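Standup, Tuesday
Yesterday: got the pipeline producing C-alpha coordinates again.
Today: sanity-check two examples.
Blockers: none.

Example 1:
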Amino acid sequence: MAKEKGKPRGLGRGLSALMADVNPEPVSTETQAPRNAEILVPIEKVKANPDQPRRQFLQEDLDDLTASIKEKGVLQPLIVRPKHGGYEIVAGERRWRAAQAAQLHEVPVLIRDYSDLEMMEVAIIENIQRADLNAMEEALSYKQLMEKFGHTQEKMAEALGKSRSYIANLVRLLHLPDDVQQLVHERQLSAGHARALITTDNASDLAKKIVKGGLSVRATEALVKKSASGDKPVAVRKTKTSEEKDADTRALEDDLSAALRMKVSIDHKPGGEAGSITIAYGNLDQLDDLCNMLSR
Protein backbone atom coordinates (compact mmCIF):
# COMPACT_ATOMS: atom_id res chain seq x y z
CA MET A 1 0.00 0.00 0.00
CA ALA A 2 2.99 2.19 0.47
CA LYS A 3 3.50 4.82 -2.16
CA GLU A 4 4.83 8.33 -2.48
CA LYS A 5 2.33 10.91 -1.35
CA GLY A 6 2.55 14.68 -1.51
CA LYS A 7 2.24 16.68 1.65
CA PRO A 8 -1.06 18.46 2.26
CA ARG A 9 -1.14 21.87 0.61
CA GLY A 10 -2.59 23.57 3.63
CA LEU A 11 -3.41 27.08 2.47
CA GLY A 12 -0.84 27.13 -0.35
CA ARG A 13 0.05 30.74 -1.04
CA GLY A 14 -2.74 31.73 1.30
CA LEU A 15 -6.30 32.80 0.57
CA SER A 16 -5.44 36.43 1.32
CA ALA A 17 -2.65 36.40 -1.28
CA LEU A 18 -4.94 34.84 -3.88
CA MET A 19 -7.69 37.33 -3.01
CA ALA A 20 -5.24 40.15 -3.72
CA ASP A 21 -4.96 38.85 -7.28
CA VAL A 22 -8.73 38.55 -7.71
CA ASN A 23 -9.24 42.15 -6.53
CA PRO A 24 -5.99 43.95 -7.43
CA GLU A 25 -5.58 47.47 -6.08
CA PRO A 26 -4.56 50.28 -8.43
CA VAL A 27 -0.81 50.74 -8.58
CA SER A 28 0.46 54.22 -7.69
CA THR A 29 2.75 55.79 -10.29
CA GLU A 30 4.94 57.00 -7.45
CA THR A 31 5.65 53.49 -6.17
CA GLN A 32 7.54 50.61 -7.68
CA ALA A 33 5.44 48.37 -9.94
CA PRO A 34 4.51 45.00 -8.40
CA ARG A 35 5.62 41.62 -9.72
CA ASN A 36 4.33 40.96 -13.23
CA ALA A 37 2.64 44.34 -13.54
CA GLU A 38 -0.39 44.83 -15.79
CA ILE A 39 0.35 44.68 -19.51
CA LEU A 40 -1.67 44.75 -22.73
CA VAL A 41 -1.73 41.61 -24.89
CA PRO A 42 -3.47 40.80 -28.20
CA ILE A 43 -6.93 39.44 -27.43
CA GLU A 44 -6.45 36.51 -29.85
CA LYS A 45 -3.56 35.21 -27.70
CA VAL A 46 -5.89 34.81 -24.70
CA LYS A 47 -7.84 31.56 -24.39
CA ALA A 48 -10.60 30.48 -22.00
CA ASN A 49 -10.04 28.01 -19.17
CA PRO A 50 -11.76 24.73 -20.16
CA ASP A 51 -12.18 23.90 -16.45
CA GLN A 52 -13.86 27.19 -15.57
CA PRO A 53 -16.09 26.44 -12.51
CA ARG A 54 -18.83 28.66 -13.88
CA ARG A 55 -20.48 27.47 -17.08
CA GLN A 56 -23.41 29.89 -17.48
CA PHE A 57 -22.95 33.46 -18.68
CA LEU A 58 -26.21 35.40 -18.95
CA GLN A 59 -26.43 37.16 -22.30
CA GLU A 60 -28.09 40.22 -20.77
CA ASP A 61 -25.18 40.67 -18.35
CA LEU A 62 -22.66 40.22 -21.18
CA ASP A 63 -24.49 42.82 -23.28
CA ASP A 64 -24.35 45.35 -20.41
CA LEU A 65 -20.65 44.67 -19.83
CA THR A 66 -19.94 44.97 -23.57
CA ALA A 67 -21.61 48.39 -23.66
CA SER A 68 -19.55 49.50 -20.65
CA ILE A 69 -16.29 48.27 -22.21
CA LYS A 70 -17.06 50.06 -25.48
CA GLU A 71 -17.40 53.30 -23.53
CA LYS A 72 -14.70 52.96 -20.83
CA GLY A 73 -12.54 49.99 -21.79
CA VAL A 74 -11.61 47.03 -19.57
CA LEU A 75 -11.12 48.64 -16.15
CA GLN A 76 -9.96 45.53 -14.26
CA PRO A 77 -7.25 43.35 -15.84
CA LEU A 78 -7.74 39.66 -16.50
CA ILE A 79 -5.59 37.21 -14.53
CA VAL A 80 -3.86 34.80 -16.89
CA ARG A 81 -1.06 32.24 -16.91
CA PRO A 82 1.30 31.37 -19.80
CA LYS A 83 0.05 28.39 -21.83
CA HIS A 84 1.07 27.01 -25.25
CA GLY A 85 2.68 30.23 -26.46
CA GLY A 86 -0.30 32.31 -25.37
CA TYR A 87 -2.25 32.88 -22.18
CA GLU A 88 -4.99 30.94 -20.38
CA ILE A 89 -7.59 32.82 -18.36
CA VAL A 90 -7.50 32.22 -14.62
CA ALA A 91 -10.08 34.89 -13.75
CA GLY A 92 -12.00 37.32 -15.93
CA GLU A 93 -13.64 35.25 -18.67
CA ARG A 94 -16.72 37.50 -18.71
CA ARG A 95 -14.53 40.55 -19.36
CA TRP A 96 -12.72 38.66 -22.12
CA ARG A 97 -15.99 37.62 -23.79
CA ALA A 98 -17.38 41.15 -23.55
CA ALA A 99 -14.11 42.63 -24.88
CA GLN A 100 -14.40 40.35 -27.91
CA ALA A 101 -17.98 41.49 -28.47
CA ALA A 102 -16.78 45.11 -28.17
CA GLN A 103 -14.18 44.29 -30.89
CA LEU A 104 -11.16 45.25 -28.79
CA HIS A 105 -7.77 44.22 -30.18
CA GLU A 106 -5.96 44.14 -26.82
CA VAL A 107 -6.89 43.43 -23.19
CA PRO A 108 -5.05 44.27 -19.95
CA VAL A 109 -3.76 41.23 -18.07
CA LEU A 110 -1.83 40.26 -14.95
CA ILE A 111 0.41 37.27 -15.67
CA ARG A 112 0.72 34.74 -12.84
CA ASP A 113 2.65 31.47 -12.75
CA TYR A 114 -0.13 29.42 -11.14
CA SER A 115 -0.23 25.66 -10.78
CA ASP A 116 -3.39 23.84 -11.93
CA LEU A 117 -4.68 23.72 -8.33
CA GLU A 118 -3.99 27.41 -7.66
CA MET A 119 -5.65 28.28 -10.95
CA MET A 120 -8.80 26.45 -9.94
CA GLU A 121 -8.64 28.05 -6.49
CA VAL A 122 -8.51 31.61 -7.85
CA ALA A 123 -11.33 30.87 -10.33
CA ILE A 124 -13.53 29.65 -7.46
CA ILE A 125 -12.69 32.67 -5.30
CA GLU A 126 -13.56 35.06 -8.12
CA ASN A 127 -16.92 33.35 -8.51
CA ILE A 128 -17.60 33.75 -4.78
CA GLN A 129 -16.86 37.47 -5.02
CA ARG A 130 -19.45 37.92 -7.76
CA ALA A 131 -22.60 39.58 -6.53
CA ASP A 132 -24.93 37.65 -8.87
CA LEU A 133 -24.12 34.17 -7.57
CA ASN A 134 -27.17 32.40 -6.19
CA ALA A 135 -26.97 30.73 -2.78
CA MET A 136 -26.38 27.22 -4.14
CA GLU A 137 -23.54 28.34 -6.43
CA GLU A 138 -21.90 30.13 -3.52
CA ALA A 139 -22.36 27.10 -1.24
CA LEU A 140 -20.81 24.80 -3.84
CA SER A 141 -17.85 27.17 -4.16
CA TYR A 142 -17.21 27.04 -0.39
CA LYS A 143 -17.49 23.25 -0.45
CA GLN A 144 -14.94 23.07 -3.26
CA LEU A 145 -12.50 25.27 -1.34
CA MET A 146 -12.85 23.03 1.72
CA GLU A 147 -12.72 19.67 -0.03
CA LYS A 148 -10.18 20.36 -2.79
CA PHE A 149 -7.85 22.70 -0.94
CA GLY A 150 -8.35 21.93 2.74
CA HIS A 151 -9.46 25.45 3.68
CA THR A 152 -11.27 25.73 7.01
CA GLN A 153 -14.37 27.83 7.48
CA GLU A 154 -12.44 30.14 9.83
CA LYS A 155 -9.73 30.85 7.25
CA MET A 156 -12.27 31.41 4.48
CA ALA A 157 -14.33 33.73 6.68
CA GLU A 158 -11.23 35.78 7.56
CA ALA A 159 -9.95 36.06 3.99
CA LEU A 160 -13.33 36.67 2.33
CA GLY A 161 -14.64 39.10 4.94
CA LYS A 162 -17.59 36.95 5.96
CA SER A 163 -18.61 35.35 9.26
CA ARG A 164 -18.05 31.64 9.87
CA SER A 165 -21.76 31.18 10.63
CA TYR A 166 -22.61 32.70 7.23
CA ILE A 167 -20.40 30.16 5.47
CA ALA A 168 -21.57 27.26 7.66
CA ASN A 169 -25.25 28.06 7.02
CA LEU A 170 -24.72 28.25 3.27
CA VAL A 171 -22.85 24.94 3.13
CA ARG A 172 -25.73 23.33 5.03
CA LEU A 173 -27.98 24.10 2.04
CA LEU A 174 -26.19 21.34 0.14
CA HIS A 175 -28.02 18.82 2.36
CA LEU A 176 -31.35 19.81 0.80
CA PRO A 177 -32.99 17.53 -1.81
CA ASP A 178 -31.87 18.12 -5.40
CA ASP A 179 -35.23 19.50 -6.51
CA VAL A 180 -35.17 22.11 -3.73
CA GLN A 181 -31.60 23.07 -4.62
CA GLN A 182 -32.71 23.53 -8.23
CA LEU A 183 -35.42 25.97 -7.13
CA VAL A 184 -32.71 28.01 -5.38
CA HIS A 185 -30.57 27.85 -8.55
CA GLU A 186 -33.54 29.21 -10.49
CA ARG A 187 -34.04 31.92 -7.82
CA GLN A 188 -37.59 30.75 -7.13
CA LEU A 189 -36.44 30.23 -3.53
CA SER A 190 -34.08 32.51 -1.63
CA ALA A 191 -31.32 31.43 0.74
CA GLY A 192 -33.65 32.36 3.63
CA HIS A 193 -36.36 30.03 2.32
CA ALA A 194 -33.83 27.25 1.86
CA ARG A 195 -32.39 27.62 5.38
CA ALA A 196 -35.88 27.29 6.83
CA LEU A 197 -36.35 23.98 4.99
CA ILE A 198 -33.13 22.32 6.16
CA THR A 199 -34.57 20.80 9.34
CA THR A 200 -37.72 19.33 7.80
CA ASP A 201 -38.19 15.85 6.36
CA ASN A 202 -40.62 16.97 3.65
CA ALA A 203 -38.63 19.85 2.16
CA SER A 204 -39.66 19.04 -1.42
CA ASP A 205 -43.39 19.18 -0.71
CA LEU A 206 -43.10 22.36 1.34
CA ALA A 207 -40.92 24.01 -1.31
CA LYS A 208 -43.66 23.50 -3.91
CA LYS A 209 -46.20 25.14 -1.59
CA ILE A 210 -43.84 28.06 -0.95
CA VAL A 211 -43.28 28.72 -4.65
CA LYS A 212 -46.95 28.29 -5.55
CA GLY A 213 -48.10 30.59 -2.76
CA GLY A 214 -45.28 33.11 -3.12
CA LEU A 215 -44.64 32.84 0.63
CA SER A 216 -42.22 35.11 2.44
CA VAL A 217 -39.34 33.72 4.51
CA ARG A 218 -41.26 34.39 7.73
CA ALA A 219 -44.33 32.61 6.36
CA THR A 220 -42.08 29.73 5.30
CA GLU A 221 -40.67 29.40 8.82
CA ALA A 222 -44.23 29.29 10.18
CA LEU A 223 -45.17 26.63 7.61
CA VAL A 224 -42.16 24.49 8.55
CA LYS A 225 -43.00 24.83 12.26
CA LYS A 226 -46.62 23.87 11.65
CA SER A 227 -45.54 20.88 9.56
CA ALA A 228 -43.17 19.70 12.29
CA SER A 229 -45.82 19.97 15.02
CA GLY A 230 -48.09 17.71 12.99
CA ASP A 231 -45.54 14.87 12.92
CA LYS A 232 -45.93 11.93 15.27
CA PRO A 233 -43.52 12.31 18.24
CA VAL A 234 -42.53 8.64 18.16
CA ALA A 235 -41.68 8.78 14.47
CA VAL A 236 -39.48 11.83 15.04
CA ARG A 237 -37.53 10.02 17.77
CA LYS A 238 -37.09 6.90 15.66
CA THR A 239 -36.04 8.69 12.50
CA LYS A 240 -33.58 11.20 13.82
CA THR A 241 -31.51 12.36 10.85
CA SER A 242 -28.38 14.41 10.31
CA GLU A 243 -30.57 17.43 9.53
CA GLU A 244 -31.38 17.71 13.26
CA LYS A 245 -27.78 18.49 14.14
CA ASP A 246 -27.08 22.03 15.25
CA ALA A 247 -25.05 24.44 13.12
CA ASP A 248 -21.93 24.13 15.31
CA THR A 249 -21.86 20.35 14.94
CA ARG A 250 -22.30 20.60 11.19
CA ALA A 251 -19.57 23.24 10.99
CA LEU A 252 -17.20 20.97 12.93
CA GLU A 253 -18.05 18.06 10.61
CA ASP A 254 -17.26 20.25 7.60
CA ASP A 255 -13.94 21.39 9.08
CA LEU A 256 -12.86 17.82 9.88
CA SER A 257 -13.99 16.59 6.46
CA ALA A 258 -11.92 19.32 4.81
CA ALA A 259 -8.86 18.56 6.94
CA LEU A 260 -9.03 14.78 6.40
CA ARG A 261 -10.49 14.96 2.87
CA MET A 262 -12.95 12.26 3.92
CA LYS A 263 -16.58 12.32 5.02
CA VAL A 264 -16.85 12.85 8.79
CA SER A 265 -20.05 12.41 10.83
CA ILE A 266 -20.37 13.41 14.50
CA ASP A 267 -23.03 11.81 16.72
CA HIS A 268 -23.18 13.82 19.94
CA LYS A 269 -25.50 12.42 22.61
CA PRO A 270 -28.13 14.99 23.70
CA GLY A 271 -27.55 16.35 27.20
CA GLY A 272 -24.24 14.56 27.64
CA GLU A 273 -20.56 14.86 26.88
CA ALA A 274 -20.10 11.50 25.10
CA GLY A 275 -20.54 10.75 21.43
CA SER A 276 -18.91 9.15 18.42
CA ILE A 277 -17.14 10.18 15.22
CA THR A 278 -17.50 8.21 11.99
CA ILE A 279 -14.92 8.64 9.21
CA ALA A 280 -15.84 7.21 5.81
CA TYR A 281 -12.99 6.38 3.39
CA GLY A 282 -13.55 5.76 -0.29
CA ASN A 283 -10.64 3.47 -1.06
CA LEU A 284 -7.65 1.70 0.50
CA ASP A 285 -5.35 4.63 -0.24
CA GLN A 286 -7.51 6.88 1.91
CA LEU A 287 -7.52 4.24 4.66
CA ASP A 288 -3.74 4.12 4.46
CA ASP A 289 -3.58 7.93 4.73
CA LEU A 290 -5.91 7.88 7.73
CA CYS A 291 -3.84 5.22 9.51
CA ASN A 292 -0.67 7.25 8.93
CA MET A 293 -2.28 10.42 10.32
CA LEU A 294 -3.59 8.62 13.42
CA SER A 295 -0.28 6.87 14.05
CA ARG A 296 1.52 10.22 14.02
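Example 2:
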Amino acid sequence: MIKGIGIDIIELKRIKKSIEKSNRLVKRILTNREQATYENLTSVSRQVEFIAGRFAAKEAFAKATGTGIGKLGFQDIEVTSAKSGAPILHVQGFEGYTTFISITHSKEYAVAQVIIEE
Protein backbone atom coordinates (compact mmCIF):
# COMPACT_ATOMS: atom_id res chain seq x y z
CA MET A 1 0.00 0.00 0.00
CA ILE A 2 1.33 3.45 -0.89
CA LYS A 3 2.12 5.51 2.22
CA GLY A 4 3.26 8.64 0.40
CA ILE A 5 4.42 10.28 -2.81
CA GLY A 6 6.79 13.23 -2.98
CA ILE A 7 8.39 15.26 -5.74
CA ASP A 8 10.90 18.10 -5.75
CA ILE A 9 12.59 20.29 -8.35
CA ILE A 10 15.64 22.52 -7.90
CA GLU A 11 17.41 24.95 -10.21
CA LEU A 12 21.01 23.93 -10.89
CA LYS A 13 22.17 27.55 -10.96
CA ARG A 14 20.99 28.03 -7.34
CA ILE A 15 23.07 25.05 -6.24
CA LYS A 16 26.10 26.18 -8.27
CA LYS A 17 25.93 29.68 -6.81
CA SER A 18 25.73 28.26 -3.28
CA ILE A 19 28.70 25.89 -3.64
CA GLU A 20 30.80 28.62 -5.26
CA LYS A 21 30.28 30.75 -2.13
CA SER A 22 31.17 28.07 0.41
CA ASN A 23 31.24 24.35 1.14
CA ARG A 24 28.45 24.66 3.74
CA LEU A 25 25.69 23.31 1.50
CA VAL A 26 27.73 20.21 0.63
CA LYS A 27 28.30 19.40 4.31
CA ARG A 28 24.69 20.17 5.26
CA ILE A 29 23.03 18.13 2.50
CA LEU A 30 25.38 15.21 1.82
CA THR A 31 26.26 12.37 4.19
CA ASN A 32 29.93 11.40 4.52
CA ARG A 33 29.55 8.63 1.95
CA GLU A 34 27.74 10.99 -0.47
CA GLN A 35 30.48 13.61 0.06
CA ALA A 36 33.13 11.05 -0.90
CA THR A 37 31.29 10.31 -4.15
CA TYR A 38 30.79 14.05 -4.79
CA GLU A 39 34.50 14.79 -4.32
CA ASN A 40 35.47 12.07 -6.82
CA LEU A 41 33.41 13.64 -9.62
CA THR A 42 35.70 15.19 -12.19
CA SER A 43 33.70 18.20 -13.39
CA VAL A 44 31.97 21.05 -11.60
CA SER A 45 28.83 20.57 -13.71
CA ARG A 46 28.61 16.92 -12.65
CA GLN A 47 29.13 17.92 -8.99
CA VAL A 48 26.30 20.46 -9.28
CA GLU A 49 23.99 17.83 -10.81
CA PHE A 50 24.94 15.36 -8.08
CA ILE A 51 24.23 17.61 -5.12
CA ALA A 52 21.08 19.04 -6.75
CA GLY A 53 19.77 15.53 -7.37
CA ARG A 54 20.50 14.48 -3.77
CA PHE A 55 18.87 17.65 -2.44
CA ALA A 56 15.75 17.05 -4.55
CA ALA A 57 15.64 13.36 -3.54
CA LYS A 58 15.82 14.15 0.16
CA GLU A 59 13.17 16.87 -0.13
CA ALA A 60 10.93 14.52 -2.15
CA PHE A 61 11.30 11.79 0.50
CA ALA A 62 10.48 14.22 3.29
CA LYS A 63 7.40 15.38 1.37
CA ALA A 64 6.33 11.76 0.84
CA THR A 65 6.37 11.26 4.62
CA GLY A 66 4.03 14.22 5.01
CA THR A 67 6.36 16.05 7.40
CA GLY A 68 8.93 17.74 5.18
CA ILE A 69 12.49 18.40 6.30
CA GLY A 70 12.47 19.16 10.00
CA LYS A 71 11.53 15.93 11.75
CA LEU A 72 13.88 14.26 9.29
CA GLY A 73 17.21 15.89 8.57
CA PHE A 74 19.23 15.77 5.38
CA GLN A 75 21.80 13.60 7.19
CA ASP A 76 19.09 11.01 8.01
CA ILE A 77 18.51 10.36 4.30
CA GLU A 78 21.20 8.88 2.06
CA VAL A 79 21.12 8.14 -1.65
CA THR A 80 23.50 5.50 -2.97
CA SER A 81 23.63 3.83 -6.37
CA ALA A 82 23.00 0.25 -7.42
CA LYS A 83 25.55 -1.37 -9.74
CA SER A 84 23.22 -0.43 -12.59
CA GLY A 85 23.44 3.22 -11.55
CA ALA A 86 19.87 3.39 -10.25
CA PRO A 87 19.50 5.45 -7.06
CA ILE A 88 18.68 3.71 -3.77
CA LEU A 89 17.30 5.48 -0.69
CA HIS A 90 18.46 4.64 2.85
CA VAL A 91 16.53 6.45 5.58
CA GLN A 92 17.02 6.16 9.33
CA GLY A 93 13.77 5.06 10.94
CA PHE A 94 12.21 3.85 7.68
CA GLU A 95 14.05 0.54 7.31
CA GLY A 96 10.77 -1.44 7.18
CA TYR A 97 9.40 0.50 4.22
CA THR A 98 9.94 -0.02 0.51
CA THR A 99 10.98 3.14 -1.31
CA PHE A 100 11.11 3.91 -5.01
CA ILE A 101 13.10 6.87 -6.29
CA SER A 102 13.78 8.50 -9.61
CA ILE A 103 16.21 11.39 -10.15
CA THR A 104 16.62 13.27 -13.41
CA HIS A 105 18.61 16.28 -14.60
CA SER A 106 18.24 18.71 -17.45
CA LYS A 107 20.42 21.65 -18.41
CA GLU A 108 18.70 23.83 -15.80
CA TYR A 109 16.96 21.59 -13.25
CA ALA A 110 17.19 18.46 -11.14
CA VAL A 111 13.99 16.63 -10.22
CA ALA A 112 13.35 13.70 -7.91
CA GLN A 113 10.24 11.67 -7.18
CA VAL A 114 9.81 9.25 -4.28
CA ILE A 115 7.12 6.70 -3.49
CA ILE A 116 6.99 5.05 -0.07
CA GLU A 117 5.17 1.74 0.42
CA GLU A 118 4.26 0.08 3.70
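Quick observation on example 2: The first helix runs from residue 12 to 21. The CA atoms of residues 26 and 35 lie 7 Å apart.
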